[in-house]
Each structure stands twice: as C-alpha cells, then as structure tokens.
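Format notes (please read before filing issues)

Several people have asked whether sequences and structure tokens are stored in separate files. They are not. Every record keeps both together, in the order shown below: the sequence lines, then the token lines. Line labels are part of the format and must not be stripped during preprocessing.
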Amino acid sequence: MSVLLDCDTGIDDALALLYLCSQPHVELVAVTSTPGNVDADQVAANNLALLQLCGRGDVPVAIGARAPLRIPLVTTPETHGPQGIGYAELPTASRAPEARGAVELWVEEARARPGELTALITAPLTNFALALRAEPRLPELLAGVVIMGGAYYYQGNTTPTAEWNTHVDPHAAAEVFAAFAGQPEERLPIVCALETTERIEMHPEHVAALAEAAGCAAPELVLPDQPEGQRSTASNRLVKHVSDMLRFYFEFHRHYDQGYVAHVHDYFAASVAAGTARYAVRTATVHVEVDSPRLIGTTVADYRELWGERPNARIVSANHPQEAFAELIGSLASLARMVG
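Then the structure lines:
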C-alpha cells in the first residue's frame, strides 16, 4: 500500500500521520502541506517534526498552496492550538521541506507509478485541485483517493451546514469532485464525512489504554477535572506528545458543549486509505456550494440521480468505532514502543 498524504496538521491530522507511520504495510511516499488548521509553513514544520519523532526522515515533505483558490485563508487556533498540535512541544526537525512544491511532487510520483498510489487528503482540497489542473489524468493514474470532508444530511461543524475542510476552500472541493464525474465507480473518491468521522470519538480512557499498551511506567490520566493545560509526564515520548495534543482537543470540544471528547476525523480516513477499516459506502453526485454567503462550503449529495448527473464520489455510510479504536491503540502502541 503506497500512500500520498496531503494534510493541514492539525491534531487529528497528526494522529493520522502517526498511524500511517505505525503500519508496516504502508509505504508513505510523501507528505504535502496545505494551509487550513494552521498556515502552510507551520503545517510543514509539524509534519517534519512528527516524521522525525517516528524515525521517518526518509519521507519527503513539501509545501503547496499558501492560500485557498479564491477566498482568504481562515485558520483555527482555537481548535488545534496556535501551532496546530495542541499542548505538544515537538523538537524542531533537523531538515527542511523539499525544494519542489506539492503539486510538482504529486504529479511526478503519479506519472512515475501509475496505478500504484493512493491519495489521502485530510485537508482543504487546494493542493489536490491544483494537481488536477496540472495533470487532469490523476483520476486514472492514482490507484484510489480518500478524502476527509463534507457533511451530508448532517449538521456542519464550522457553519450550520458546512464542514471545516470544504468551508476553507469550497472552490477547490468543487473542482475536485467535478474532475471525477463519470469515472468508473471503483475510481471515485471515498469520502469520509462528518456523519461517520464524528462517530470516531476519542475519550480519556483511550489515552490511558494507549499508555498502558505502550508500556508506560505510570497510568496516563487525561481527565476533565484536571487543570486545563496540564502537561503529560509519560515515560514514552510518543505517548507524551499524543497526550498533550489530545488534552487540548478534549478541552476544545468541551468548550463547545460536546463533552470531554475528541473527534479524530482524520485517523478514520487514514485507516480507510490503509485498508484497515471496515466500512460501507454509497455512490453519489456531490455538489459543493460556492456562491451563497451563508451556505458556502455546504456539500449536498444526490444518492438517487435526481439531478441526472454522473456520480463523482463514494460516501462512507457506515463504520465501526470500537474496531477503529482497537486498531489505533494497538498500532500506535507498537510504534511508541519502537521509538521510545
């Protein structure tokens, strides 16, 4: 399994990246950085630092666009922290991003390895839209595409109707779905939208289970009655950083009356791309609203061909959270023991 990851790291993006690094059968071909949760330079810095933490200095990291296609960039420090990784303080990476840009990297790799690469995008679709402009054959060259984004028959998490990634760059999302219209069903992107990713709801006991499985010397307690901003003292450095990231994320969700939980959307998308998740999909034609000020970024799915338009997506309709967390904890614990 060879994966090209594009992300806007982001706490749940960070978990997705760590998860991919923990999978022996996954070749992480490159990580490209799109602005979203934080700006593109900070995204790249986070990606480099996380890869260094995992001992994966072999994976190229590139920066792509620095703003959405047509609208100003909006970031979300209140959700992920000013650096995008919550309370975690990762050592600065010893290497810099690639000289070549994200679009150049995507196109070169896809052309060199037709039918081999799975694209995983857990960010606004800016870089992927630009790559499709540069190489319109990407839908045929890629083995598959997995996208985290959108909300269908479900409340948005950024506006009443819009999910974060599509709201940040709705024009890019519209271009991407248009590019896949009429492709064979097996080539349509798999879309992990809020109605299934919000089911992947992390709780403090998951952090405790990770620390125990990683062999930490003491229990790792991230609890709602502890002071906000308390830092981990875990004996394992990967567990420590994951704990510090997730504490910030738990606190954010509580501030918005969702409970002391964390929706780790991007990990689920990563498990779909890695082939380790069990899920079901429904084929649909996706429309992304780009004109209405109140509805911009809203995604609508026509499952019944009422528009008479060709399908352009396969939207995940069912998943299995308990299985997902067993997989995440076991896999991350193995990586944690390896890196110490």
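For reference, the curators noted about this record: The mean pLDDT is 97. The two ends are 26 Å apart (CA to CA).
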